């Protein structure tokens, strides 16, 4: 089943042509990694899926992006509803200056859920889901800033999962973390793949190889190659891809 | 050579820094020294004597009581804790009512004796006369030796700095006037200021913002007398007309003018604080399906609350210290305000209006300095509050 379907997407920051005629289909319950050198457009492309680029002034898009068959750039599409369905984890852990509990409960509250017992149940469930429960169960009412970077990032994943999205976008989720925390988050991605469709942008080629089913290689705003991760990393079709994954540039 | 110049510049900076710190310190010391002088001043106008009959059990009178006596508000010693005896007010000019001019001598050389005699004769007398006519063997109770006490000032409910024989320096009406006008200003300015700050920081597009922000900052640069003039010519008549008041120069008019003046400060500081909310924080909220308004009141305002508080406190600070505009529109009646819609007088306006006519070194002069010191302490407390709040933000 096709979850995300981008058709002929062109994206501009002012006059800068950031994405060039990109088409890509992402299947449900798979994890897809975007790789490529800095500035190649992979984060921009990722941020199209929950319309995060709308926040940047003076940008425009041509082409269509469908999620579950709906054109998310259609005028009738409600952005907040879309973002409920498409969760996002950012490069740097960015918990709110609230308690651990309230961080996870935030998404539920802003979506109009007031049933406190349901909120508590969901908070506990998602914190367990990201394997953070044992570390924070005694300090749910303490500030999220007291956690380590890796714990904060897992909290941010829990926060995104609490509103039960079907897609989880991860924009270099481990680039600010140490290897052990990175390992925990990669394990988590493996588990989450069963229930969610995961799109992850990463600079770390080993990570892409470890966590993804499919990989897309971007270069200068173009999608150079997109296919099974194993194939991309062992036998890429394009020379540019070959050069990048073998570390000859980028 | 270069090292020498660097040392020279460093020395220059050190000297200018110390000089300005020293200057500020000197101003504060001067302020408090002059202000403290008030409590060494006699209750009665300097160079004059206030005396009672020696048998009168009343030995001390506060400035306010003295004024009541001379205004004939109090006419019996009973009310002042004395015997049931009518008060006989004697002013120096009344002397000829008691003694024909020829008895006083060609050069008034017998005046001291006559006054002394009169005070001894009349049990209910309160006599007010120049110091030079105080007889050497005067037997009455001289109450003009009393000093003005801190209670007279800090708990005093009236401000009559030029009343004779005893000027009255009561802080309360001026302090209440200041607080009323300032609090009113904040109540008016805060919702508008925050609304504009939120609009500028989060909603306005770049074009609108780059036009509005400098305009608002320009407002901060307009001299306060211009605001005062505007208030006097536009706001005061408007208030009088709309609210159908006998006078438009009220605490409310002062608050409105001050609110307009405090707005740029509140807007700029609050907006800057809101803009320090990390983009990641906003994006995290929006990415969870929060609307822009939910993000503003659930993330941005809580995140920048200490900056917003600073904005408010700075706004209050500006309002409390403001002189000229308030002087022009509040009507300047030094009475304890009972409503928002009557004339009041603030501390800074009092200093500005009266310092010119207060003789240097006199009690009135010192009282004005004391007012200045009170104002200084209020603004100091406010600045410390701001410091405390913003340091708390840094720790978090």
UniProtKB/TrEMBL annotation, chain A:
One GO CC term, this protein: membrane
Domain ABC transporter: 4-245
UniProt-recorded Gene Ontology molecular function terms: ATP binding; ATP hydrolysis activity; phosphate transmembrane transporter activity
GO BP term, example: phosphate ion transmembrane transport
UniProt keyword list: ATP-binding, Nucleotide-binding, Phosphate transport, Transport
Cited Pfam families: ABC_tran
Alphabetical list of SMART domains matching this protein: AAA
Domain of life where this protein originates: Bacteria
InterPro entries listed in its UniProt record: AAA+_ATPase, ABC_transporter-like_ATP-bd, ABC_transporter-like_CS, P-loop_NTPase, PstB-like
Protein name: Phosphate ABC transporter ATP-binding protein, PhoT family
Lineage: Bacteria, Pseudomonadati, Bacteroidota, Bacteroidia, Bacteroidales
UniProtKB/TrEMBL annotation, chain B:
GO function terms (MF aspect): phosphate transmembrane transporter activity
CDD domains associated with the record: TM_PBP2 (cd06261)
Listed transmembrane segments: 12-32, 168-197, 218-239, 251-274, 295-320, 367-389
Domain ABC transmembrane type-1: residue ranges: 175-386
Keyword set includes Transmembrane helix: yes
Pfam families per UniProt: BPD_transp_1 (PF00528), PBP_like_2 (PF12849)
Ligase in keyword set: no
A Gene Ontology cellular-component term: plasma membrane
Coarse class of the protein's main subcellular location: membrane
UniProt keyword terms in alphabetical order: Cell membrane, Membrane, Phosphate transport, Transmembrane, Transmembrane helix, Transport
Gene Ontology BP, a term: phosphate ion transport
InterPro entries xrefs: MetI-like, MetI-like_sf, PBP_domain, Phosphate_PstC, Phosphate_Transport_Permease
Membrane topology classification: Multi-pass membrane protein
Compartments it resides in: Cell membrane
Family, as annotated: Belongs to the binding-protein-dependent transport system permease family. CysTW subfamily.
Role noted for this protein: Part of the binding-protein-dependent transport system for phosphate; probably responsible for the translocation of the substrate across the membrane.
NCBIfam families membership: phosphate_pstC (TIGR02138)
Annotated protein name in UniProt: Phosphate transport system permease protein
Organism, as annotated: Parabacteroides chinchillae
